[in-house]
Design goal:
heterodimer, A: alpha/beta, 5-stranded parallel beta sheet, 4-stranded parallel beta sheet, about 35% helix, B: mainly beta, 5-stranded antiparallel beta sheet, 10 strands, about 35% strand
């Protein structure tokens, strides 16, 4: 059973993950059985950074459970602009809502916020830290397409600042998964994530060249290399071009490779890949709703 | 008592922190929040020859007996340190430092984007690893040799076991 808050994927056990994924699958198969379960309950969406998919999927999930959402709006229009601390903001909003979803630009913000509220709080992205609800829908998608044991997963792109990568890497240590990380040297996994993977005894290898490992992969999880991480546009273009996939690059991949991406993408996956059976990133985004329904249902006590 | 030890004078009442890793004496004072403004009489020996460590630092604080929690924090930068409580020039208690599980309010997180570096009503908290510490908020790891660089001299210092 999940604890009161979802702050980091490192806190998720295999049982936690399987409980949410099984519940999500049941909801996916028959959304009616949870319809109206949380009538009258309110979810507060506290997004200190712009978000489209995460915010809208939480909003949809809560509404499909019968609940309502409230939204603090943009930071520019909120009291945060007046210098209010995060601790004060969440303490106030807690008074209006039965649960909080927090997106914030600083690492550790979700843990801090959780120390000031009694209602369940979900970390929807804390800087370059963690994004555990994304991980649950990623795992759901992997399970649907490749299973979660005895598989080889490649994770490519910005591994240093990619919070979805950090959460996914942690969560995969609960399963029999060989993890291959592919990135430029400057964007390798941060020390703390490598430390955790080592402590967990995970099977991990790091690469700068996708071709070294592509034929072995069951899943390729691509992330965006962000322009603002590079001092010069030219350096960005040189690096980004090497981590772009298209059907030619994927010619050496297994036919049943599952290609994933947390979205939004810019040009790291060519549109021609969309038309292939390998492309699962839009399914992955759609899975956000049933998985977040299952997560909220669990945190709000509906599945107990 | 050997001539080498006489380089730092004896104290009447207080604490002698001996076998401090050479070069860490000033950081020991920072951890203890001693900057001279509190009026304590402090003697510091640096790079003193030591049979056990080769070279060591020694810190003697007159009129103050350190709490166990203060002592425990020292383990982060001086794992071999011994703590001698002195009363009337006699050693009445001798303890080794012990590794704690976490350290609160002593270190600043080196990750500028960590929420603890914002204007929030929380103290920093670091979990102690085998060879360093780790921010309990953002997860940033500081290796043992770098810990002293991140001591917050303003911190009050509490430990939890």
């Amino acid at each position: 059973m999940l604890q009161d808050h979802l702050i980091s994927a490192a806190h998720l056990s295999r049982d936690d993950i399987e409980a949410v994924l099984d519940h999500a699958a049941a909801i996916d198969a028959d959304p009616e059985f949870v319809r109206g379960r949380h009538d009258g309950r309110v979810l507060a969406l506290c997004f200190f950074e712009p978000s489209t998919r995460t915010k809208m999927s939480f909003e949809t999930a809560m509404k499909r459970l019968g609940g309502e959402t409230i939204d603090m709006g943009s930071v520019e229009s909120s009291s945060v602009k007046k210098g209010e601390s995060l601790a004060d903001t969440v303490r106030v909003i807690e008074g209006y809502a039965d649960a909080l979803v927090l997106r914030h630009p600083s690492e550790g913000s979700a843990k801090l916020a959780s120390e000031f509220v009694e209602v369940p709080l979900v970390n929807a992205g804390d800087g370059a830290g963690q994004h555990p609800s994304q991980t649950l829908l990623d795992l759901y998608t992997i399970r649907e397409n490749a299973g979660l044991d005895d598989i080889t997963v490649g994770i490519m792109g910005d591994l240093k600042y990619g919070r979805t990568v950090h959460s996914l890497a942690h969560a995969l240590t609960n399963f029999d998964v060989r993890q291959h990380f592919v990135s430029p040297e400057s964007l390798r996994l941060p020390r703390n994530v490598r430390y955790d993977l080592h402590e967990a005894g995970a099977q991990v290898r790091e690469h700068t060249d996708l071709t070294e490992v592509l034929p072995e992969l069951d899943v390729l999880y691509v992330t965006r290399i962000q322009r603002e991480r590079f001092p010069e546009e030219r350096e960005y273009r040189e690096v980004a071009g090497e981590y772009r996939i298209d059907n030619e690059v994927l010619a050496d991949a297994r036919d049943d490779l599952t290609v994933m991406h947390p979205l939004p993408r810019v040009d790291e996956i060519a549109p021609e890949v969309d038309e292939t059976a390998r492309a699962k990133y839009f399914d992955q985004a759609h899975n956000g709703v049933p998985v977040r329904m299952a997560l909220l249902d669990s945190l709000l006590g509906g599945d107990r | 008592m050997s001539e080498k030890e006489l380089r730092v004078s004896k104290i009447r009442n207080g604490t002698v922190i001996d076998h401090v890793t050479a070069g860490q004496a000033l950081n020991v004072l920072a951890i203890l929040g001693i900057d001279g403004s509190g009026g304590e009489s402090v003697s510091v020996g640096m790079n003193v020859p030591s049979d056990k460590l080769g070279l060591k630092d020694v810190v003697k604080v007159e009129g103050r007996e350190l709490s166990q929690s203060e002592v425990d924090v020292l383990s982060l930068i001086a794992p071999e340190a011994t703590i001698n409580i002195i009363r009337d020039y006699e050693v009445i208690e001798k303890n080794r430092v012990e590794r704690t599980e976490s350290v609160t309010g002593i270190l600043v997180c080196p990750n500028h984007n960590c929420i603890t570096n914002g204007d929030e009503p929380v103290q920093t908290e670091f979990d102690v690893l085998e060879d360093g510490v780790r921010c309990a908020y953002c997860g940033t790891i500081v290796r043992e040799g770098d810990v002293a660089e991140h001591i917050d001299a303003r911190g009050s210092g509490e430990t939890a076991l």
